[in-house]
Task: structure prediction
Amino acid sequence: MPTARASTRFNGFPKAVFVIRHGATAGDPEIAVAETRTGAHRVLLPGVYAVYAKSGHIVYANGQGDLLAVPFDQDRLELTGDPVSFASGLLGSSNVSLDLTISDDGTLMYVKGSGPGQMERGEPVWVHRDGREEPMVADWTTEAVYVSLSPDQTRLAATINASGTEGIWIRDFTRGTVSKLTFEGGLNRRPEWSPDSRKVVFVSDRRGQLEIFAQRADGGAPPERLLSHANLLQEALYTADGQWMVYRAGGGAGSNLYALRRDGDTIPLPLAVTGFQETAPAVSRDGKWLAYVSDETGSYEVYVRPFPDVERGKWLVSVAGGIEPAWSHDGSELFYRNRNHEMVAVEVLPAATPPTGRQQVLFDAGKYSSDIYHSPWDVAADGQRFAMIRARETDLRESELIVIENFFEALRRLEQ
Result:
């Protein structure tokens, strides 16, 4: 069940900012605000710790170990601007709990680095089925969080974290260039490609809440808002035929999967809408199967159902835990990462019931970035190698007290 922590009252008002953590594994916590009298709350943005500052900001930490501040209207209970980052190098963990305080006169104090090293974002690399690793691009070291290969295999879309702001970048393998695609919002993440390799679909907070946008990969047109939802949108993808958009809305036990036909339908089709947490949807390229992750057994497991008629069947695929499902391009295999951080290949038998066969452990994927909510890696068209992120390890074994005087003034300068 979700748990709430780090509650802070707003200058005597009956409102509180807190962090929602979803289950024991606690990936992707969310910062929320609530009316304490009624208990009604609203999720604002992803984050692992938050406090309210008298300057009218929420000061928070993200899962990558950055401290940020975002303007907040405590009467309307909504964000009024983009986040700005002012510190980094904190413990990069979803379970972080910071010693942090902000006085009314603007003195900020926090303890930096109070825990062991954690795996974080890092460099995109190729990993072969036997575990051999090779550079994706010579001397390309960056702060990648998610990567996605275009269907024609000529480009890579990557979420890059720069000073606490996540943006989408495009690496063109043919031309040898890299270019930034997104310039608005503090969070642009989880890129997926259109079937024709011309557009990138991604999640963005540029309008104050998480919505789905698409933009031409060459940057030749402004982004187009595809989808908004009463609950925050967390990820989305097109089916290979371009007829459907599959997406996830909400967080925690309210994290559900839907599909929307792109021929003008406005009523979404529920795919996995339960009292449990469903994440990481992946549709086979022939459009017949949906794979996803659910915690309905108390642990994260990979399931497969027919698509779009999900009521025709449901099969557990993973053995003792599984996340990050991805289909091979030829439809013969389904990949996932198991509880031991190993990459597993599952034989697909479309005419059988269940439609999956033998499983084979390919390699130890423990040193590559992982996410229970959305796969941060992708599989190449030949099924012989994977675009993965070799996580860097930040060593934060020593604690340090940091004091920032005149923090409110410094924050005003950062926002200019």
Remarks:
- The chain is about 0% helix and 50% strand.
